[in-house]
Amino acid sequence: MIPFNKPYMTGKELWYISQAHAAGHLAGDGHFTRHCSNWLESRIGCRKALLTHSCTAALEMAAILADIKEGDEVIMPSYTFVSTANAFALRGAVPVFVDIRADTLNIDETRIEEAITPRTRAIVPVHYAGVACEMDSIMDIARRYGLLVIEDAAQGIMSTYKGRPLGSIGHLAALSFHETKNIISGEGGALLINDAGLVNRAEIVREKGTNRSQFFRGQVDKYTWVDIGSSYLPGEIIAAFLWAQMEEADAINKRRLALWSTYHQWFRRVEESGACRRPLVPRDCSHNAHMYYLLLPDLERRTRFIEQMRAHAIGAVFHYVPLHSAPMGQKLGRVCGSMSHTDSLSERLVRMPLWLGLEDEQARIIQEATNALA
Ligand SMILES: *Cc1c(COP(=O)(O)O)cnc(C)c1O
Fold first, then answer.
1. 212 vs 216: CA distance, rounded Å
2. From the CB of residue 38, how many other CB atoms can be counted at a distance below 10 Å?
3. What is the distance between the alpha carbons of residues 187 and 238, in angstroms, rounded to a whole number?
4. Any idea which fold 13-247 has?
5. How many angstroms separate the first and last alpha carbons of the chain?
6. Are 241 and 185 spatial neighbours (Cβ–Cβ below 8 Å)?
7. What's the predicted TM-score (pTM) here?
8. With 90 as the cut, is the pLDDT of residue 173 above it?
9. How far away, in angstroms, is 81 Cα from ligand 1 center?
């Protein structure tokens, strides 16, 4: 079986974990956490990076920092992972779903303004497949209406928009280090803070609502309960694992991009024959090869394609069931305008295996199995 995903290990993970073990500091915010946050701050150029247990946890922190209250509205695509909406629903907000663009499958920025009401508090662009949303337009809308922008950059590490790293553009951003992402720690994530006014409170929310971080820096002489919060910080074992990955991030990115380009080359002929459409990366965006997907002409052909791949023992999979059509999305959310791209594209998209270690032999099997498409 050629699995859809296989976590890549650089080889140094256990060595760094043994160092954390030997140092005897196992709680969060030790030596390895500092390495990882410094790396994120310097590579992404965010003001502050805080490691979290997951991207979900980072989005939940963002919802608290955005002061989301019962009945507030948060604009997002429906074609996304459940956590994008859940983090805000947990605070009583209504997720307002807007259709996606047919080219990048990202939120259609031209449809955001009509979704804004007096209750709107934030916009959550999701950079699907590590390809940037149209951030200039989104930031401009947010500025005009006084809204916060929270980038769901779970898939977007090391991608750029007009030369700017994803995660550095919105007021806040969330990254994922889940084992299906490019840089991993099993479960893991980070909250990136670009709005200077939110940094102090972010530290407090992450430390169970206490000013413990300020205490350790000697800025206050005791630490105490000052805000709502929870325990969002991962221990050093996770950070040690993650550091081994970050050290190799450029090599990982390069190798993923090579695999992505191989697929892109193969499927050129298939696209020309009209049997599929390949991913589109806008000219002013650089991507991170998080995903290789194909868009087939209809649901029936996608189902058949996935079955064919399975017959060749290849793990090709579909992706999100749009949130507006899920039971909880229907109960808690609101749809703004037509969802025709979301409905159509989500039925036609299939993701191909893409992981480091995919051998030439396996790649050849995939190529032969997909030749039938053309
Ligand atoms: C993976 C993913 C998440 C969730 O990440 P976790 O780290 O598993 O919580 C959220 N949003 C998007 C778009 C994702 O791809």
1. 6
2. 12
3. 8
4. Aspartate Aminotransferase; domain 2 (3.40.640)
5. 24
6. yes
7. 0.97
8. yes
9. 6
Residue of 155, 175, 245 best suited for mutating to test ligand 1, as the one with most atoms within 8 Å of CB: 155
Instruction: Say how many Å lie between the CA of residue 265 and the centre of ligand 1.
Output: 28
Percentage of the chain beyond pLDDT 70 is 100
Q: Nearest 5 degrees, angle CA 168-CA 170-CA 174?
A: 75
Is the confidence at residue 374, as pLDDT, over 70? no
CB-based pocket (< 6 A), ligand 1: 54-56, 80-81, 83-84, 126, 152, 154-155, 176, 178, 189
- Give nearest CA residue, ligand 1 atom 1: 154
Point out which residues pair with 352 in neighbouring strands. 292
Average pLDDT over residues 122-151: 98
At 207, list the tokens.
Answer: 């430390």
In this prediction, residue 367 carries a pLDDT of 85
Mean pLDDT for the stretch of residues 36-64: 98
Residue 315 has pLDDT above 90, yes or no: yes
Question: Over 70: is that where the pLDDT of 230 sits?
Answer: yes
Query: What one-letter code names the amino acid at 146?
Result: G
pLDDT tens-digit series, residues 92-104 = 999 999 999 999 9
Closest Cα to atom 8, ligand 1: which residue? 178
Exposed, middle or buried: residue 46 (CB in 10 Å: 0-12, 13-18, 19+)?
buried
| Domain edges within the chain | 13-247, 249-373
Structure tokens at 246: 């970050």
pLDDT band at 123 (very low <50, low <70, confident <90, very high): very high
Tokens coding 276 = 């599929």
Mean pLDDT of 215-243: 95
Q: What is the position in ligand 1's atom list of the atom closest to the CA of 176? A: 7
- Which of 50, 51, 52, 56 most suits a substitution to test ligand 1, by most atoms within 8 Å of the C-beta? 56
CA 300/CA 235 separation, integer angstroms: 46
Regarding the domain with residue range 249-373, which homologous superfamily does it belong to in the CATH classification?
Answer: Aspartate Aminotransferase, domain 1 (3.90.1150.10)
